[in-house]
UniProtKB/TrEMBL annotation:
UniProt keyword terms in alphabetical order: DNA-binding
Keyword DNA-binding: yes
Signal peptide span: none
Segments forming domain HTH araC/xylS-type: 142-240
Keyword set includes DNA-binding: yes
PANTHER family, per the entry: HTH-TYPE TRANSCRIPTIONAL REGULATOR NIMR (PTHR11019)
PROSITE patterns, alphabetized: HTH_ARAC_FAMILY_2
Official protein name in the record: Helix-turn-helix domain-containing protein
Source organism (scientific name): Streptomyces pakalii
Domain of life: Bacteria
């Protein structure tokens, strides 16, 4: 397969690309935006990614990427053991991940032997950030599952507006959430958002950026939510959130 200096078309073992049509891989896959903006369609859903933001794909997830002019993304394959929690797991901008990807970009590995150390480093970062601090599961019901994913992408959307878009009543959605996740909708969404914030903090991010990555308007709002759900005082979370939450 032909290549260019920027990897517009890349060989199988290369880790950088500028976009591609719908396809899938037999290995877990990371999409990381180096600069600019990108639009990823995965499993029929659309995800907007900005600079340093990443998305983790399970094996055999159909996806396509379009990068805006002047942008660039990297797309490393991962070890088969590095599986995301769900088929498509957004990661936001994680500093530890950015460090690995920036180093890889500078090193420009082109053979399997050269790529392997970076694959291992990515695995360590992903394992470190992907443990759920607040266990949540997606609903099984197809419409409610789609609603749940949309709720995480649009944290300001109300349950009523989400239910209407998915042709359900808010009461129906609440019943499915309770039956299939054990949590009311609002608490489920809050816990899922806080998991995104904890992932960011574990990856070396600071509280304001973690709040933004999780869809909170302010860092104070995130701290209150974390304290309420975990029982850890706000003062301890402010001083050392990762340590206060048990690493």
């Amino acid at each position: 397969m032909p290549t260019t200096s920027l990897g517009t078309v890349v060989a199988e073992n290369a880790i950088r690309f500028l976009g591609h049509d719908t396809h899938q891989h037999d290995e877990p896959h990371l999409v990381y935006v180096v600069t600019g903006n990108a639009c990823l369609t995965a499993d029929g859903e659309e995800w907007r990614l900005g600079r340093h933001e990443a998305l983790w794909l399970a094996p055999r997830v159909p996806h396509a990427l379009r990068i805006e002019p002047g942008g660039m993304a990297l797309g490393p394959f991962l070890d088969p053991a590095e599986q995301p929690r769900c088929r498509v797991q957004p990661l936001g901008a994680v500093p530890a991940l950015t460090e690995v990807m920036t180093t890889a970009l500078g090193a420009a590995p082109s053979t399997p032997e050269q790529v392997e150390p970076f694959r291992q480093a990515l695995g360590r970062v992903l394992r470190g950030i992907s443990r759920q601090y607040f266990p949540v599961v997606l609903p099984v019901h197809p419409a409610v599952r789609a609603l749940a994913r949309e709720a995480l992408r649009t944290p300001s959307a109300t349950l009523e507006s989400l239910a209407e878009r998915h042709r359900m009543s808010a009461r129906q959605v609440q019943r499915v959430f309770l039956d299939e996740t054990g949590l009311p909708f609002t608490r489920w969404r809050n816990r899922a958002r806080m998991n995104a914030a904890v992932e960011h903090l574990r990856g070396g991010g600071e509280l304001t950026a973690a709040a933004r990555a999780a869809g909170y308007a302010t860092r104070a709002g995130l701290l209150r939510g974390l304290s309420r759900e975990s029982g850890v005082p706000v003062s301890e979370l402010t001083t050392d959130a990762v340590g206060a939450l048990g690493g």
